[in-house]
Amino acid sequence: MTDWTITTLAGAIRARRISPVEATRELLSRIERLDGRLRAFIIVDAAGALDRARALERDGMTGRWHGPLHGVPLAHKDLFRIAPLPTSCGTKTAEYFVAERDATAVTRLAEAGAITLGKLNMAELAMGPYGDNAHHGDVQNPWRLGHVSGGSSSGSGAAVAAGLALGALGTDTGGSIRLPAACCGIAGLKPTYGRVSRAGGMPLSWSMDHIGPMARTVRDVALLLEIIAGADPDDATASPRPVGAYLAGLERPIRGLRVAMADNFYFDGVAPEVARAVSAMGGVLAGLGAQVAPLRLPDPQVIHDVSGIVARAESAVVHTRILRERPHELQPAVRARLEVGERITAHDYLQALRLRARLAREFIAEVFAEADLVLAPVTPTPAPSLSEATAGDGEAIAARMGRFSRLTRPWNGLGLPVLALPCGFSEAGLPIGAQLVGRPFDEATVLAAGHAYEQATEWHRRRPALAGVEGTAAQRASE
Amino acid sequence: MAALIERAEADLAIAEEPSRFVAALEAAAADADAGGTGRP
User: Fold this and answer.
1) Residue A206 has pLDDT above 50, yes or no
2) Which of A241, A309, A369 lies at the smallest CB-CB distance from B29?
3) N- or C-end of chain B: fewer Cβ atoms within 10 A?
4) Global confidence as pTM
5) Of A206, A236, A440, which has the smallest distance from its Cβ to B28's Cβ?
Protein backbone atom coordinates (compact mmCIF):
# COMPACT_ATOMS: atom_id res chain seq x y z
CA MET A 1 0.00 0.00 0.00
CA THR A 2 2.63 2.52 1.01
CA ASP A 3 4.64 1.72 -2.13
CA TRP A 4 1.81 2.25 -4.58
CA THR A 5 2.25 4.67 -7.42
CA ILE A 6 -0.46 5.78 -9.82
CA THR A 7 0.97 3.44 -12.44
CA THR A 8 1.12 0.38 -10.20
CA LEU A 9 -2.31 0.92 -8.67
CA ALA A 10 -3.96 1.57 -12.04
CA GLY A 11 -2.39 -1.67 -13.30
CA ALA A 12 -3.59 -3.61 -10.24
CA ILE A 13 -7.14 -2.31 -10.65
CA ARG A 14 -7.17 -3.17 -14.34
CA ALA A 15 -5.90 -6.68 -13.47
CA ARG A 16 -8.67 -6.88 -10.81
CA ARG A 17 -6.18 -7.52 -8.02
CA ILE A 18 -7.71 -4.64 -6.09
CA SER A 19 -10.94 -2.74 -6.58
CA PRO A 20 -11.42 1.05 -6.70
CA VAL A 21 -13.49 0.82 -3.50
CA GLU A 22 -10.77 -1.11 -1.67
CA ALA A 23 -8.12 1.37 -2.78
CA THR A 24 -10.26 4.34 -1.79
CA ARG A 25 -11.12 2.86 1.62
CA GLU A 26 -7.45 2.15 2.25
CA LEU A 27 -6.45 5.74 1.52
CA LEU A 28 -9.34 7.22 3.51
CA SER A 29 -8.27 5.08 6.45
CA ARG A 30 -4.72 6.32 6.06
CA ILE A 31 -5.93 9.93 5.95
CA GLU A 32 -7.96 9.32 9.11
CA ARG A 33 -4.91 7.91 10.88
CA LEU A 34 -2.27 10.36 9.72
CA ASP A 35 -3.78 13.66 8.66
CA GLY A 36 -4.73 14.84 12.11
CA ARG A 37 -1.11 15.84 12.47
CA LEU A 38 0.04 16.28 8.87
CA ARG A 39 -2.81 18.73 8.04
CA ALA A 40 -2.55 18.02 4.32
CA PHE A 41 -6.32 18.13 3.71
CA ILE A 42 -8.79 20.97 4.11
CA ILE A 43 -11.75 18.82 3.04
CA VAL A 44 -11.90 15.02 2.98
CA ASP A 45 -14.83 14.02 0.77
CA ALA A 46 -15.13 10.41 1.94
CA ALA A 47 -18.74 9.97 0.84
CA GLY A 48 -18.17 11.50 -2.60
CA ALA A 49 -15.01 9.48 -3.15
CA LEU A 50 -16.65 6.21 -2.16
CA ASP A 51 -19.71 6.88 -4.33
CA ARG A 52 -17.44 7.50 -7.28
CA ALA A 53 -15.33 4.42 -6.47
CA ARG A 54 -18.44 2.23 -6.39
CA ALA A 55 -19.57 3.58 -9.76
CA LEU A 56 -16.13 2.94 -11.27
CA GLU A 57 -16.09 -0.52 -9.74
CA ARG A 58 -19.43 -1.37 -11.34
CA ASP A 59 -18.24 -0.05 -14.69
CA GLY A 60 -14.98 -1.97 -14.44
CA MET A 61 -16.84 -5.20 -13.74
CA THR A 62 -18.73 -4.79 -17.01
CA GLY A 63 -15.58 -3.93 -18.90
CA ARG A 64 -16.30 -0.21 -19.18
CA TRP A 65 -12.92 1.31 -18.35
CA HIS A 66 -12.89 5.10 -18.13
CA GLY A 67 -9.23 5.63 -18.88
CA PRO A 68 -5.69 5.23 -17.57
CA LEU A 69 -6.63 6.51 -14.10
CA HIS A 70 -9.64 4.22 -13.61
CA GLY A 71 -10.16 3.98 -9.86
CA VAL A 72 -7.02 5.89 -8.84
CA PRO A 73 -7.60 8.20 -5.83
CA LEU A 74 -6.11 11.68 -6.19
CA ALA A 75 -6.61 14.95 -4.30
CA HIS A 76 -6.12 18.55 -5.35
CA LYS A 77 -5.06 21.91 -3.99
CA ASP A 78 -8.02 23.81 -2.58
CA LEU A 79 -8.00 26.51 -5.22
CA PHE A 80 -9.65 24.43 -7.94
CA ARG A 81 -13.38 24.49 -8.36
CA ILE A 82 -14.57 20.91 -7.81
CA ALA A 83 -18.33 21.01 -7.29
CA PRO A 84 -20.06 20.59 -4.91
CA LEU A 85 -17.10 21.21 -2.58
CA PRO A 86 -16.31 24.79 -1.51
CA THR A 87 -13.02 26.42 -2.48
CA SER A 88 -11.25 28.25 0.35
CA CYS A 89 -7.94 29.01 -1.40
CA GLY A 90 -6.41 28.59 2.03
CA THR A 91 -8.30 31.58 3.43
CA LYS A 92 -10.62 31.78 6.43
CA THR A 93 -13.57 32.01 4.00
CA ALA A 94 -14.85 28.52 3.16
CA GLU A 95 -16.08 29.55 -0.30
CA TYR A 96 -13.57 32.21 -1.30
CA PHE A 97 -13.34 31.36 -5.00
CA VAL A 98 -16.31 30.66 -7.26
CA ALA A 99 -16.13 29.64 -10.91
CA GLU A 100 -18.78 28.73 -13.46
CA ARG A 101 -17.33 25.32 -14.23
CA ASP A 102 -15.06 22.79 -12.54
CA ALA A 103 -11.37 23.23 -13.21
CA THR A 104 -10.58 21.83 -16.65
CA ALA A 105 -7.53 19.93 -15.40
CA VAL A 106 -9.54 18.23 -12.65
CA THR A 107 -12.36 17.38 -15.09
CA ARG A 108 -9.88 15.76 -17.47
CA LEU A 109 -8.45 13.63 -14.66
CA ALA A 110 -11.97 12.56 -13.67
CA GLU A 111 -12.80 11.70 -17.27
CA ALA A 112 -9.70 9.48 -17.26
CA GLY A 113 -11.17 7.61 -14.28
CA ALA A 114 -9.63 9.37 -11.29
CA ILE A 115 -11.36 9.64 -7.91
CA THR A 116 -11.10 12.88 -5.91
CA LEU A 117 -10.50 12.21 -2.21
CA GLY A 118 -10.80 15.82 -1.20
CA LYS A 119 -9.17 19.22 -1.33
CA LEU A 120 -5.69 19.91 -0.08
CA ASN A 121 -4.30 22.50 2.26
CA MET A 122 -2.23 25.32 0.85
CA ALA A 123 -0.58 28.59 1.77
CA GLU A 124 -3.19 31.30 2.15
CA LEU A 125 -4.08 32.63 -1.35
CA ALA A 126 -1.14 30.54 -2.65
CA MET A 127 1.14 33.27 -1.34
CA GLY A 128 3.89 31.53 0.55
CA PRO A 129 6.66 29.03 -0.02
CA TYR A 130 6.44 27.27 3.36
CA GLY A 131 2.93 25.82 3.75
CA ASP A 132 2.12 27.42 7.07
CA ASN A 133 -1.56 28.29 7.36
CA ALA A 134 -3.21 30.06 10.30
CA HIS A 135 -6.72 28.97 9.28
CA HIS A 136 -6.33 25.33 8.31
CA GLY A 137 -3.21 24.34 10.23
CA ASP A 138 0.43 24.35 9.24
CA VAL A 139 1.13 21.50 6.83
CA GLN A 140 3.80 19.31 8.40
CA ASN A 141 6.69 17.82 6.51
CA PRO A 142 6.12 14.04 6.49
CA TRP A 143 9.86 13.50 6.80
CA ARG A 144 10.08 15.52 10.00
CA LEU A 145 7.21 17.01 11.96
CA GLY A 146 7.79 20.65 12.83
CA HIS A 147 9.49 21.37 9.49
CA VAL A 148 7.83 23.07 6.54
CA SER A 149 6.31 21.04 3.73
CA GLY A 150 7.10 23.75 1.20
CA GLY A 151 4.36 25.78 -0.45
CA SER A 152 2.17 26.98 -1.66
CA SER A 153 0.92 23.54 -2.82
CA SER A 154 1.83 22.30 0.65
CA GLY A 155 -0.96 19.78 1.12
CA SER A 156 -0.28 18.36 -2.34
CA GLY A 157 3.37 17.74 -1.44
CA ALA A 158 2.67 16.28 1.99
CA ALA A 159 -0.30 14.13 0.93
CA VAL A 160 1.60 12.49 -1.91
CA ALA A 161 4.79 11.99 0.13
CA ALA A 162 2.84 10.45 3.02
CA GLY A 163 0.79 8.20 0.74
CA LEU A 164 -2.54 9.87 1.50
CA ALA A 165 -3.18 10.39 -2.22
CA LEU A 166 -1.30 8.94 -5.16
CA GLY A 167 -1.04 12.19 -7.05
CA ALA A 168 -2.22 15.78 -6.86
CA LEU A 169 -2.59 18.93 -8.85
CA GLY A 170 -0.74 21.99 -7.67
CA THR A 171 -0.23 25.47 -8.99
CA ASP A 172 3.03 27.34 -9.44
CA THR A 173 3.32 31.15 -9.65
CA GLY A 174 6.81 31.46 -8.16
CA GLY A 175 7.71 27.87 -7.29
CA SER A 176 4.58 26.54 -5.58
CA ILE A 177 4.72 23.09 -7.19
CA ARG A 178 8.49 22.67 -7.11
CA LEU A 179 9.10 23.90 -3.56
CA PRO A 180 6.78 21.37 -1.86
CA ALA A 181 7.96 18.65 -4.25
CA ALA A 182 11.54 19.33 -3.15
CA CYS A 183 10.73 19.67 0.55
CA CYS A 184 8.63 16.47 0.56
CA GLY A 185 10.85 14.35 -1.72
CA ILE A 186 8.46 13.82 -4.64
CA ALA A 187 8.32 14.84 -8.31
CA GLY A 188 6.45 17.90 -9.53
CA LEU A 189 6.23 19.61 -12.89
CA LYS A 190 5.65 23.24 -13.72
CA PRO A 191 4.76 22.91 -17.41
CA THR A 192 5.41 25.50 -20.09
CA TYR A 193 3.22 28.59 -19.73
CA GLY A 194 0.17 27.76 -21.84
CA ARG A 195 0.60 23.97 -21.79
CA VAL A 196 -2.15 23.31 -19.21
CA SER A 197 -5.46 25.16 -19.04
CA ARG A 198 -5.92 27.30 -15.96
CA ALA A 199 -9.69 27.53 -16.28
CA GLY A 200 -11.50 26.87 -13.01
CA GLY A 201 -8.51 27.59 -10.81
CA MET A 202 -8.06 30.67 -8.63
CA PRO A 203 -5.81 33.15 -10.42
CA LEU A 204 -3.00 34.63 -8.39
CA SER A 205 -0.98 36.19 -11.20
CA TRP A 206 -2.35 35.38 -14.64
CA SER A 207 0.98 36.11 -16.30
CA MET A 208 2.89 33.73 -14.02
CA ASP A 209 0.37 31.05 -12.97
CA HIS A 210 0.87 27.45 -14.05
CA ILE A 211 -1.07 24.29 -13.13
CA GLY A 212 0.86 21.05 -12.93
CA PRO A 213 1.00 17.49 -11.56
CA MET A 214 2.74 16.19 -8.44
CA ALA A 215 3.37 12.48 -7.81
CA ARG A 216 5.86 10.00 -6.43
CA THR A 217 7.57 9.23 -9.72
CA VAL A 218 8.39 11.02 -12.94
CA ARG A 219 6.39 8.33 -14.79
CA ASP A 220 3.28 9.28 -12.84
CA VAL A 221 3.88 12.96 -13.50
CA ALA A 222 4.19 12.24 -17.23
CA LEU A 223 0.93 10.26 -17.14
CA LEU A 224 -0.96 13.06 -15.42
CA LEU A 225 0.47 15.74 -17.71
CA GLU A 226 -0.53 13.82 -20.81
CA ILE A 227 -4.12 13.83 -19.53
CA ILE A 228 -4.41 17.44 -18.41
CA ALA A 229 -2.43 19.23 -21.15
CA GLY A 230 -3.86 20.77 -24.28
CA ALA A 231 -6.15 23.44 -25.69
CA ASP A 232 -9.25 24.52 -23.81
CA PRO A 233 -11.99 26.86 -25.07
CA ASP A 234 -12.31 28.16 -21.49
CA ASP A 235 -8.70 29.42 -21.39
CA ALA A 236 -7.42 31.52 -24.30
CA THR A 237 -3.84 31.04 -23.12
CA ALA A 238 -4.04 27.23 -23.32
CA SER A 239 -1.97 26.39 -26.39
CA PRO A 240 -3.38 24.36 -29.29
CA ARG A 241 0.08 22.90 -29.84
CA PRO A 242 -0.30 19.08 -29.90
CA VAL A 243 0.29 17.33 -26.58
CA GLY A 244 3.42 15.19 -26.53
CA ALA A 245 3.49 11.43 -26.02
CA TYR A 246 5.18 11.93 -22.67
CA LEU A 247 4.79 8.37 -21.40
CA ALA A 248 5.95 6.77 -24.61
CA GLY A 249 8.95 9.08 -24.69
CA LEU A 250 10.16 8.31 -21.17
CA GLU A 251 12.49 5.48 -22.13
CA ARG A 252 14.31 7.33 -24.85
CA PRO A 253 18.07 7.41 -24.14
CA ILE A 254 19.58 10.62 -22.87
CA ARG A 255 23.01 9.91 -24.35
CA GLY A 256 24.36 13.06 -25.95
CA LEU A 257 21.84 15.35 -24.29
CA ARG A 258 23.54 18.62 -23.31
CA VAL A 259 22.87 19.47 -19.68
CA ALA A 260 24.02 22.86 -18.43
CA MET A 261 24.86 23.19 -14.74
CA ALA A 262 23.79 26.73 -13.91
CA ASP A 263 27.07 28.51 -13.31
CA ASN A 264 25.77 31.73 -11.80
CA PHE A 265 23.03 32.70 -9.32
CA TYR A 266 21.62 29.23 -8.69
CA PHE A 267 24.43 28.03 -6.43
CA ASP A 268 25.11 31.39 -4.74
CA GLY A 269 24.54 31.10 -1.01
CA VAL A 270 23.17 27.57 -1.36
CA ALA A 271 23.80 25.17 1.53
CA PRO A 272 26.80 22.95 0.75
CA GLU A 273 24.80 19.73 1.15
CA VAL A 274 22.25 20.99 -1.39
CA ALA A 275 24.97 22.03 -3.85
CA ARG A 276 26.69 18.66 -3.44
CA ALA A 277 23.50 16.70 -4.10
CA VAL A 278 22.65 18.66 -7.26
CA SER A 279 26.23 18.42 -8.52
CA ALA A 280 26.15 14.68 -7.88
CA MET A 281 22.98 14.50 -9.96
CA GLY A 282 24.96 16.08 -12.80
CA GLY A 283 27.50 13.30 -12.34
CA VAL A 284 24.80 10.63 -12.59
CA LEU A 285 23.42 12.19 -15.77
CA ALA A 286 26.95 12.29 -17.20
CA GLY A 287 27.30 8.62 -16.32
CA LEU A 288 24.19 7.99 -18.40
CA GLY A 289 25.84 9.63 -21.40
CA ALA A 290 24.67 13.23 -21.08
CA GLN A 291 27.18 15.99 -21.77
CA VAL A 292 27.15 17.92 -18.50
CA ALA A 293 29.00 21.23 -18.38
CA PRO A 294 28.74 24.52 -16.52
CA LEU A 295 27.04 27.38 -18.35
CA ARG A 296 26.75 31.04 -17.43
CA LEU A 297 23.10 32.07 -17.79
CA PRO A 298 21.77 35.53 -18.67
CA ASP A 299 21.63 37.19 -15.24
CA PRO A 300 18.72 35.35 -13.51
CA GLN A 301 18.37 38.14 -10.95
CA VAL A 302 16.83 40.39 -13.61
CA ILE A 303 14.03 38.00 -14.62
CA HIS A 304 13.60 37.13 -10.94
CA ASP A 305 12.92 40.77 -10.10
CA VAL A 306 10.72 41.30 -13.15
CA SER A 307 8.68 38.22 -12.25
CA GLY A 308 8.28 39.51 -8.71
CA ILE A 309 6.95 42.90 -9.86
CA VAL A 310 4.43 41.30 -12.22
CA ALA A 311 3.28 38.70 -9.68
CA ARG A 312 2.93 41.22 -6.85
CA ALA A 313 0.98 43.71 -8.97
CA GLU A 314 -1.40 41.13 -10.42
CA SER A 315 -2.03 39.36 -7.10
CA ALA A 316 -2.90 42.66 -5.40
CA VAL A 317 -5.45 43.33 -8.14
CA VAL A 318 -7.00 39.86 -7.95
CA HIS A 319 -7.31 39.91 -4.16
CA THR A 320 -8.08 43.58 -3.69
CA ARG A 321 -11.45 42.94 -2.01
CA ILE A 322 -10.15 40.80 0.83
CA LEU A 323 -7.18 43.14 1.31
CA ARG A 324 -9.38 46.22 1.62
CA GLU A 325 -12.44 44.79 3.35
CA ARG A 326 -11.07 42.00 5.57
CA PRO A 327 -7.33 42.57 5.96
CA HIS A 328 -7.48 41.33 9.54
CA GLU A 329 -8.30 37.87 8.19
CA LEU A 330 -5.02 37.64 6.30
CA GLN A 331 -1.81 36.27 7.75
CA PRO A 332 0.66 39.14 8.31
CA ALA A 333 3.12 38.00 5.64
CA VAL A 334 0.36 37.50 3.04
CA ARG A 335 -0.98 40.95 3.82
CA ALA A 336 2.52 42.43 3.59
CA ARG A 337 3.04 40.84 0.17
CA LEU A 338 -0.30 42.09 -1.15
CA GLU A 339 0.40 45.58 0.16
CA VAL A 340 3.67 45.64 -1.78
CA GLY A 341 1.66 44.85 -4.90
CA GLU A 342 -0.77 47.67 -4.25
CA ARG A 343 2.10 50.17 -4.37
CA ILE A 344 3.41 49.09 -7.79
CA THR A 345 2.35 51.65 -10.39
CA ALA A 346 0.66 50.70 -13.65
CA HIS A 347 3.68 52.12 -15.46
CA ASP A 348 6.17 49.91 -13.64
CA TYR A 349 3.96 46.84 -13.95
CA LEU A 350 3.61 47.22 -17.69
CA GLN A 351 7.29 47.92 -18.20
CA ALA A 352 8.15 44.78 -16.21
CA LEU A 353 5.72 42.77 -18.31
CA ARG A 354 7.28 44.09 -21.53
CA LEU A 355 10.77 43.32 -20.26
CA ARG A 356 9.71 39.82 -19.32
CA ALA A 357 8.92 39.09 -22.96
CA ARG A 358 12.32 40.38 -24.08
CA LEU A 359 14.23 38.46 -21.41
CA ALA A 360 12.45 35.22 -22.24
CA ARG A 361 13.26 35.51 -25.92
CA GLU A 362 16.92 36.28 -25.15
CA PHE A 363 17.23 33.43 -22.67
CA ILE A 364 15.74 30.88 -25.04
CA ALA A 365 17.92 31.96 -27.95
CA GLU A 366 21.15 32.09 -25.95
CA VAL A 367 20.89 29.17 -23.57
CA PHE A 368 19.25 26.59 -25.79
CA ALA A 369 21.87 27.16 -28.48
CA GLU A 370 24.32 25.68 -25.96
CA ALA A 371 22.22 23.21 -23.98
CA ASP A 372 19.12 21.05 -24.07
CA LEU A 373 18.47 21.22 -20.33
CA VAL A 374 19.53 23.35 -17.38
CA LEU A 375 20.16 21.78 -13.96
CA ALA A 376 19.81 23.80 -10.74
CA PRO A 377 18.74 23.36 -7.10
CA VAL A 378 15.11 24.02 -6.09
CA THR A 379 15.73 25.50 -2.64
CA PRO A 380 18.78 27.12 -1.09
CA THR A 381 18.44 24.89 2.00
CA PRO A 382 16.47 21.78 2.95
CA ALA A 383 13.07 22.44 4.55
CA PRO A 384 13.55 24.75 7.56
CA SER A 385 11.64 24.33 10.79
CA LEU A 386 8.24 26.00 10.92
CA SER A 387 9.32 28.12 13.88
CA GLU A 388 12.39 29.33 12.02
CA ALA A 389 10.38 30.05 8.85
CA THR A 390 7.62 32.01 10.57
CA ALA A 391 9.59 34.02 13.13
CA GLY A 392 9.32 37.82 13.18
CA ASP A 393 6.79 40.28 11.81
CA GLY A 394 5.03 40.12 8.44
CA GLU A 395 7.74 41.98 6.56
CA ALA A 396 10.51 39.82 8.00
CA ILE A 397 8.63 36.66 7.05
CA ALA A 398 7.88 38.00 3.57
CA ALA A 399 11.58 38.78 3.03
CA ARG A 400 12.53 35.27 4.18
CA MET A 401 9.89 33.82 1.85
CA GLY A 402 11.46 35.69 -1.05
CA ARG A 403 14.88 34.19 -0.30
CA PHE A 404 13.49 30.66 -0.07
CA SER A 405 11.77 30.90 -3.48
CA ARG A 406 14.49 32.83 -5.30
CA LEU A 407 15.71 29.78 -7.27
CA THR A 408 12.26 28.88 -8.61
CA ARG A 409 10.76 32.28 -9.41
CA PRO A 410 12.91 33.10 -12.49
CA TRP A 411 11.48 30.13 -14.40
CA ASN A 412 7.93 31.42 -14.00
CA GLY A 413 8.93 34.62 -15.74
CA LEU A 414 10.61 32.67 -18.51
CA GLY A 415 7.61 30.35 -18.89
CA LEU A 416 9.80 27.28 -19.39
CA PRO A 417 8.96 23.69 -18.34
CA VAL A 418 10.66 22.68 -15.08
CA LEU A 419 10.66 19.28 -13.39
CA ALA A 420 11.52 19.15 -9.70
CA LEU A 421 12.65 15.77 -8.43
CA PRO A 422 14.51 14.40 -5.40
CA CYS A 423 18.29 14.12 -5.74
CA GLY A 424 19.40 13.37 -2.21
CA PHE A 425 18.82 13.86 1.50
CA SER A 426 20.35 16.22 4.03
CA GLU A 427 22.31 15.02 7.04
CA ALA A 428 19.15 15.63 9.05
CA GLY A 429 17.19 13.30 6.77
CA LEU A 430 15.26 15.92 4.81
CA PRO A 431 14.83 15.65 1.02
CA ILE A 432 16.83 17.77 -1.43
CA GLY A 433 15.37 18.63 -4.83
CA ALA A 434 16.76 19.57 -8.24
CA GLN A 435 15.22 21.46 -11.15
CA LEU A 436 15.56 20.25 -14.74
CA VAL A 437 14.57 23.02 -17.15
CA GLY A 438 13.82 22.55 -20.86
CA ARG A 439 12.89 24.38 -24.03
CA PRO A 440 9.35 25.75 -24.40
CA PHE A 441 6.86 22.88 -24.79
CA ASP A 442 9.68 20.32 -24.56
CA GLU A 443 8.30 18.61 -21.48
CA ALA A 444 9.16 15.31 -23.20
CA THR A 445 12.92 15.85 -22.86
CA VAL A 446 12.65 17.13 -19.30
CA LEU A 447 10.60 14.09 -18.28
CA ALA A 448 12.84 11.60 -20.13
CA ALA A 449 15.94 12.95 -18.40
CA GLY A 450 14.21 12.93 -15.02
CA HIS A 451 13.00 9.38 -15.56
CA ALA A 452 16.47 8.20 -16.62
CA TYR A 453 17.90 9.76 -13.46
CA GLU A 454 15.22 8.11 -11.32
CA GLN A 455 15.95 4.71 -12.82
CA ALA A 456 19.63 5.15 -11.96
CA THR A 457 19.01 6.22 -8.35
CA GLU A 458 16.92 5.22 -5.34
CA TRP A 459 15.83 8.59 -3.89
CA HIS A 460 12.27 8.30 -5.19
CA ARG A 461 11.84 4.90 -3.52
CA ARG A 462 12.45 6.24 -0.02
CA ARG A 463 9.38 6.75 2.14
CA PRO A 464 9.01 8.85 5.28
CA ALA A 465 8.84 6.76 8.46
CA LEU A 466 5.94 8.92 9.71
CA ALA A 467 7.03 8.19 13.27
CA GLY A 468 4.78 9.92 15.75
CA VAL A 469 2.34 11.02 13.07
CA GLU A 470 -0.44 8.58 13.98
CA GLY A 471 -3.42 10.26 15.60
CA THR A 472 -6.83 11.22 14.34
CA ALA A 473 -8.05 14.76 13.95
CA ALA A 474 -10.34 14.23 16.93
CA GLN A 475 -7.45 13.06 19.10
CA ARG A 476 -5.36 15.99 18.00
CA ALA A 477 -8.10 18.48 18.81
CA SER A 478 -8.40 17.10 22.32
CA GLU A 479 -4.67 17.45 23.04
CA MET B 1 13.80 48.15 -9.70
CA ALA B 2 14.53 51.55 -11.24
CA ALA B 3 17.20 50.04 -13.50
CA LEU B 4 14.75 47.40 -14.72
CA ILE B 5 12.12 49.95 -15.56
CA GLU B 6 14.64 52.14 -17.38
CA ARG B 7 15.73 49.18 -19.46
CA ALA B 8 12.16 48.42 -20.46
CA GLU B 9 11.45 52.08 -21.23
CA ALA B 10 14.39 52.12 -23.65
CA ASP B 11 13.05 49.16 -25.64
CA LEU B 12 10.22 50.28 -27.90
CA ALA B 13 9.92 47.02 -29.81
CA ILE B 14 8.07 44.93 -27.28
CA ALA B 15 4.42 44.59 -26.43
CA GLU B 16 3.15 41.93 -24.14
CA GLU B 17 0.05 40.16 -22.97
CA PRO B 18 -0.39 36.52 -22.03
CA SER B 19 -1.52 35.08 -25.37
CA ARG B 20 1.32 36.86 -27.17
CA PHE B 21 3.75 35.34 -24.69
CA VAL B 22 2.35 31.86 -25.38
CA ALA B 23 2.69 32.55 -29.11
CA ALA B 24 6.37 33.40 -28.61
CA LEU B 25 6.94 30.16 -26.71
CA GLU B 26 5.13 28.23 -29.45
CA ALA B 27 7.35 29.89 -32.07
CA ALA B 28 10.46 28.83 -30.14
CA ALA B 29 9.18 25.26 -29.94
CA ALA B 30 8.39 25.25 -33.66
CA ASP B 31 11.92 26.44 -34.42
CA ALA B 32 13.37 23.65 -32.31
CA ASP B 33 11.09 21.13 -34.07
CA ALA B 34 12.49 22.35 -37.38
CA GLY B 35 16.05 21.68 -36.24
CA GLY B 36 16.82 25.13 -34.94
CA THR B 37 18.04 26.04 -31.49
CA GLY B 38 14.63 27.14 -30.28
CA ARG B 39 14.85 30.78 -31.27
CA PRO B 40 11.49 32.54 -30.90
Assistant:
1) yes
2) A241
3) N
4) 0.96
5) A440
